[in-house]
Specification:
72% of the residues lie in helices and 0% in strands. The protein is built from seven helices and no strands.
Length: 151
């Protein structure tokens, strides 16, 4: 694979994880940081801030990848989404699944640095976050599932 192809491939992964649109990360970070401040009696540890910040970035990226996996047959037909890497074929389904699993594994390793309750809650949240895109097919309130997952 040439350097240009590798650069193009990483760019496609970058866009698949929506790192080109970081506002979603910021929207998730603010309540996370506030929760850390409240849970830490106004003084969260730097360790927790780093763990949870990295977790937000990873889980948001994983959620975006799973969303595109779930919508891969619809996205090419919708103007707003037709240029997404999975919809255009820049990234293959197998690659997207591998990326999703890698992001989830790294996030899981991060959460192991916390306490047992946080690990249990994270596992439940990971299931909900992974299932969220599919709730669009069965309910009119998929954002409620997403909110519970990130809660």
């Amino acid at each position: 694979m040439t350097t240009t192809n590798r650069t193009t491939r990483w760019g496609a992964y970058w866009r698949l994880m929506r790192f080109d649109r970081p506002i979603g990360i910021l929207l998730l970070l603010w309540p996370t940081w506030w929760a850390l401040v409240l849970a830490g009696n106004g003084r969260p540890t730097v360790r927790n801030i780093l763990i949870f910040t990295a977790g937000v970035v990873l889980m948001r990226a994983a959620g975006c990848v799973m969303n595109d996996i779930a919508d891969r047959d619809f996205d090419p037909h919708v103007e707003r989404t037709r240029e997404r890497p999975l919809a255009t074929g820049e990234v293959q389904l197998k690659e997207a699944i591998g990326l999703f699993l890698t992001l989830m594994l790294i996030a899981f390793l991060l959460v192991l640095l916390t306490n047992a309750l946080t690990v249990k809650l994270a596992l439940a949240g990971a299931v909900l976050a992974s299932a969220y895109p599919f709730f669009k097919r069965f309910t009119h309130l998929p954002q409620v599932v997403l909110g519970i997952a990130f809660g």
